[in-house]
């Protein structure tokens, strides 16, 4: 088989996927109608055309604006189910998906509404699609640490439904150490830890260093800037820290500067995985992300297999599923 067919067919695992980033324009309009919300656009095409972005901060504006159509438990169920269906069609077998409770509680949607909707979709996906999904709760780093801590406390009744915690949103001026206490408490509660060290953000090498040494993360989301620091790179390899790289979103926001980064990380022995980040916004689900890497730097079938395997290897799988997938 050729590499492209192999990419499509190989069983895949996704570790860096914001469920709110799978909100397609058509669903925005359907939920707006259902919830009686007025949108300042005639249709999904116009909305997309008139919401351009050029960096992380400008991307986040449209991302949070569109989320306002998510109100009821059913909305969160429908959002997640739509992604699970698309992912399964691309041979994703296991996914650890991020959700941003504060993007909803901050506008009056209850934490439990979000969790129950997502959980019901996870349970149904296992039954109807044979897709296994775990939830990772992300804190919004541009809100105060106290709000993150309150969110962590709010999650404890749902502890069994959540495998770990992460950190996302606007990184500028919001370093990992801002959340040192929150992540220490999360660890004590048994959550596994990851956080975004987004590409080319100001202070990114310090952020990666803090994530490793102060926070003690189990994985890093993005983290491609380790390629600029041999000591950091060696440590990531030696500690077996997974980097969840997102080739399409990197290209979208950063242009061509990091083209080929996935292959370079792979060649250096990093446990790098390929992920789609916010596929509704960056126009590509997981197979498309692998194809992007292959277009940047041609991959052998063995290299595709390693990239797919790295994701399962660095996933937070329960033992029964580890033996099934690895
Ligand atoms: C995100 Cl690409 C990215 N970076 C940081 N936070 C995010 N939330 C959703 N997508
Ligand atoms: Zn992300």
UniProtKB/TrEMBL annotation:
Record note on cofactor: Binds 1 zinc ion per subunit.
Residues under site feature: Important for catalytic activity: 222
Residue ranges annotated for the Adenosine deaminase domain, each copy included: 11-326
Binding-site residues, Zn(2+): 16, 18, 196, 277
Keywords for the protein's UniProt record, in alphabetical order: Cytoplasm, Hydrolase, Metal-binding, Nucleotide metabolism, Zinc
Family: Belongs to the metallo-dependent hydrolases superfamily. Adenosine and AMP deaminases family. Adenine deaminase type 2 subfamily.
Identification of the protein by name: Adenine deaminase
Gene that encodes the chain: add
């Amino acid at each position: 088989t050729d590499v492209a067919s192999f990419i499509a067919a190989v069983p895949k695992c996704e570790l860096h996927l914001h469920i709110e980033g799978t909100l397609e324009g058509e669903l925005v309009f359907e939920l707006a109608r259902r919830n009686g919300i007025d949108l300042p656009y005639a249709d999904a095409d116009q909305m997309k055309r008139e919401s351009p972005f050029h960096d992380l901060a400008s991307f986040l504006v449209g991302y949070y604006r569109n989320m306002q159509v998510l109100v009821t438990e059913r909305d969160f169920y429908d959002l997640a189910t739509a992604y699970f269906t698309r992912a399964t069609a691309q041979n994703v077998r296991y996914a650890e998906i991020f959700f941003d409770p504060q993007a909803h509680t901050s506008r009056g949607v209850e934490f439990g509404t979000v969790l129950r909707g997502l959980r019901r979709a996870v349970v149904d996906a296992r039954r109807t699609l044979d897709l296994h999904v775990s939830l990772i709760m992300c804190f919004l780093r541009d809100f105060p640490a106290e709000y993150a801590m309150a969110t962590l406390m709010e999650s404890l009744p749902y502890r069994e439904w959540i495998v770990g915690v992460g950190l996302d949103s606007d990184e500028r001026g919001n370093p990992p150490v801002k959340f040192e206490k929150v992540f220490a408490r999360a660890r004590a509660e048994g959550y596994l830890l990851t956080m975004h060290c987004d590409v080319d953000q100001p202070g990114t090498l310090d952020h990666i260093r803090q994530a490793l040494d102060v926070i003690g993360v189990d994985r890093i989301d993005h983290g491609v800037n380790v390629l600029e620091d041999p000591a950091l790179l060696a440590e990531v390899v030696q500690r077996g820290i997974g980097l969840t790289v997102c080739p399409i979103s990197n290209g979208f926001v950063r242009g061509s500067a990091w083209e080929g980064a996935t292959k370079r990380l792979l060649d250096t022995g990093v446990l790098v995985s390929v992920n789609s980040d916010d596929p509704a916004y960056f126009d590509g689900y997981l197979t498309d992300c692998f194809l992007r890497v292959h277009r940047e730097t041609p991959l052998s079938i063995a290299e595709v297999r390693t990239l797919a395997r790295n994701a399962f290897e660095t996933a937070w799988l329960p033992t029964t599923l580890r033996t099934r997938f690895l």
